[in-house]
Amino acid sequence: MTQAAEANPYAPQVARLSRVIDETPTIKTFCFDLEQPMEFRAGQFVQLGVPGLGEAPFTPSSSPLEPGHLEVTVLRTGGVTERLHRMGEGDVCTLRGPYGKGYPVEKLEGKDVVVVGGGVGLAPLRALIHVLLSMTDRLNKVVIKNGARESAELLFRRQYDEWAAHDKVSFEMTIDAPEPGWAGHVGVVTTVLEDLPNEVNVPNSYAFSCGPEIMLRFVTFALLEKGFQPEQIYLSMNRRMSCGIGKCGRCNIGPYYLCKDGPDMCYAQIKDYPNVF
Amino acid sequence: MSKMLFLSEDGLVRLLEAVKASEVYAAVRRERGPEYCHLQKVPEAELALREPRPSSSLKAFLQPAKERVAVYTNEGFDVEASRLVCEDRALVGLRACDLVAIAYLDKVFREGDFKDPFYEARRESELLVSVDCVAVHENCFCTAVGGRPFAESGFDLNITPLESGYLVEVGTERGREVVDRVADAAAEPTDEQLAERNAARQKSIDQVEKQTRGLRVTDKVQELLLAKQGTDELSEMAARCVECAACTFICPTCHCFHLYDQVGGEENFERIRTWDSCILGGYSRMAGPAGAKPTPRPSLRSRCANRLLHKYAFSPQQYGMLGCTGCGRCIEACCGEIDIREVLRELIGDTSG
Ligand SMILES: Cc1cc2nc3c(=O)[nH]c(=O)nc-3n(C[C@H](O)[C@H](O)[C@H](O)COP(=O)(O)OP(=O)(O)OC[C@H]3O[C@@H](n4cnc5c(N)ncnc54)[C@H](O)[C@@H]3O)c2cc1C
Ligand code: SF4
Ligand code: SF4
Ligand code: FES
Prior knowledge:
The complex is a heterodimer of chains A (277) and B (353). With 277 residues, chain A is α/β, with parallel strands linked by helices. Chain A has eight helices and 15 strands.
């Protein structure tokens, strides 16, 4: 970010798309080679937009270890995301950030880490996965679970084998609606959490989940049922945001502004406020 | 010259002339009662220093209802065009509760990791001239939320209207510069004048206390509200709320806004900020299939409760102060005749605290 843009937190920089990757029929990844690298922590988000149309919050899916190359993976769902999906290499986007706290990676030394994604929810989690894979020597275990509606909507499928090939890392996927020939697991993502107590040492674990709120709800209840404490569960509360910097008031849960204090919130912090799910 | 001085009616006129700001916003007499106005736009209007507080809040002068916050092109952000050039400004006739609101907005916009350069520019160029409330509006309840109907800090100059003439208290160097320009018109206050000020202040406190009928928003109230979160009790007022958002637009501390982009002139784009309101259904609506976009607070009840909780329970945790100054403006503004004092009273009982 430029000096000037820093002084005006509402002002975007412009960034030219270096590549657009088709991920699934509804999801694309937008790649930028930034002139000025954007340093961010896994889980921090950016405001990405279409000039003259507006911006929306997205958590980069690329590795924070390569701040010069930024990737944002976007589900087509409304005004801004429709227009983004029509853009291609060389087109100009607006960009500002990073905002929010990011995942508490420093807490994970020696721990079992459970990562649960649903649909496009795996995108923000991929930044975390990149970081986890770079520090497996300091972790006890990484268990990744991913769910999608149908096999065509499985995000980053080309990378699953590569992730699972890492020492200490396991990966499991499931889809809700199988097509003929599907040999994998079938069922919502909570069905692949059933065996979790045998896969990880629950009291020594942290779980991170991102996906639609309805999924977060069922994942949370499943984790609690498996013996996780609310303190061990982190949820991406990706709600409507505008300013991204704790001023516009839009994104509160209780006294927290998700853009500033999250967007990944420890369940223990938010569970007693109404309208969490 | 001392911190306190006496000015006659004429002396005060001269003092206000000596406020050499290029933009003056002041409490003035209008047909329907006192309002805050851009003085240069209503040059004929008389100042309202002995009337109750204006029914409008000064928020519009600190954070305009609509404002351009950035200009950019396909090549980048236009620093020059996005900068706020702010002339010297003065706010005249502010009430103690308005100064509390400014202190609150300062915490929102001038503190934390990100500062709002527009708010900041205005505040830095601002002279604050407050006035004691010698007349109290029937909806005022500042003493119930820890305030008083006169200011003891936070101003550059504070005016106390007396039976005849005014006492002016200097709060800052900036205020001092203004009174120095009318030094010849100023006198040392007499003991009688100081006593008159104390008596007038006590009278106003008594009046506000009388109409608040023992209402006190204490730490205990905060706990009580938190304990009642999610219960129907907290959202009773939703039955009368017509979702017009007037309460939030009139409120001096409400600061919610929305950012949107538009095509500006030739080849450039603008980012605009407008006021927004947590009472409105679309406020937190997320993406999703048309007609089924989820929102975390789908019911009006939940949004009414959130407003109440933000004012009296969340703000103390976020900013160390209540989000309500007790100005009572939302009471007149409400189309559903919701009286926030009654809402609180029903929740906590008449004599709590
Ligand atoms: C911190 C955070 C991280 C996110 N990360 C991703 C990601 O990596 N990939 C992804 O596909 N999606 C992500 N989302 C959701 C994404 O922001 C919304 O899908 C997007 O805003 C929809 O915009 P739209 O204009 O296409 O939809 P519309 O329905 O047309 O939205 C209109 C307006 O509402 C706002 N809006 C709508 N839904 C949301 C929402 N859920 N959150 C915030 N603002 C919203 C937009 O800013 C937009 O201006 C994230 C959301 C947040 C808050
Ligand atoms: S609430 Fe108190 S300070 Fe504010 S105008 Fe009323 S009496 Fe004056
Ligand atoms: S909530 Fe009502 S009484 Fe309190 S500061 Fe806002 S407008 Fe004034
Ligand atoms: S997005 Fe503005 S306060 Fe969080």
